[in-house]
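Quick note —
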Amino acid sequence: MRLSNYFLPVLKETPADAEIVSHQLMLRAGMIRQQSAGIYSWLPLGHKVLKKIEQIVREEQDRAGAIEMLMPTIQSADLWRESGRYDDYGLEMLRITDRRKREMLFGPTNEEMITEIFRSYCRSYKDVPKLLYHIQWKFRDEIRPRFGIMRGREFLMKDTYSFDLDEDAARKSYNRMFVAYLNTFSRLGLKSVPMRADTGPIGGDLSHEFIVLAETGESEVFCHSDLVDMDVPGSDVDFSGDLQPLVDQRTALYAATEEMHDSAEFAKVPEGKRLSARGIEVGHIFNFGTKYSDPMKAVVTHPDGKDRPVHMGSYGVGVSRLLGAIIEAHHDEKGCIWPESVAPFGAGVINLRAGDAATDAACDNAYATLCDAGLEPLYDDTGNRPGAKFASADLIGLPYQLIIGPRGLKEGKIEVRVRRSGEVHELSVEDAVARLAERSFSNG
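Predicted structure written out below.
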């Protein structure tokens, strides 16, 4: 992409109402624009990162055996009355009446709708287990939206729903999602800690939140410090095998959110291993048995010929919230420092003298080669001053900056700056482009 053709409305000053780093940088880097309290438009740069996060979430769900579908944002109130949650959910639910006076709602979650879909088609023990998921926009009318996308009213969420014959089988589905989440957050450059959590309005008696430690976290969390640096299961994990040992390895050590914290139990953790910090919730998983299938009559016939409600679970990832969490974990005073897996552009080509024939030719050639290598480069071909170009490149977090100007070209050299480490390499144009195309630079 040529910057002269792109839409990148960066800001020089930090907006006064942006309280945390992720909100400040997303506004300054032209990633989002607020439309009303807690509701944002996703501008091209922010949307590009959001889609990359979404794809990693999708790939790890697929790897775990979940099947993607898509449900609507608007739901019938009648479904929620079946489960008994319509009146209980509270003011966070946006209730709507259509032109025919039918009561509808903008879905804050989809347990009722997916249960209705399942019961319409699945009647036998042969139809389970099933793991179904979608990635869809949600709306929860937060009483005090703040921190930008971190606590917004409209947000993008991945939610998976499991249907199993009995409690033992349901636990296996729960473990699949537990392990899949560890891998997902690792691929996004985040260290997540699963913590025992309150089930809230979703229900059930088994729940874990996946927490990324950050000074700007919305709540205090407590855990054994070994959990922070524990290796993730990895891409070669066998999701059809026994995952309980992997889950036990993490749940055997103390970890709890503020609501579930037990001071006496935490005191049993060796003093040097006790970690209390602020945390950002990026995922939440629930095993709630027959809470929805029983009242909504989602039953299957067992091998003994008897009909029983299926056991269910739900598993959410805040896809849009993850973008904020990544920035909170990866930034400096200059701007964003993206993990390469989600960087909006793989590299930047910075033309220090647009209009100079030799410099333009070298930049055009470098840009074309990086495009062919699949790096998705951003080419700053504007007439802005070099200092402004460098500041913008750092602000939006280009992992590598290929800096080309007439002075260096006379000596047969250009600069490659590595955003994360700050390293600067002087190389020939050919070597610099080749090394970037081969992805041989270390991003620290």
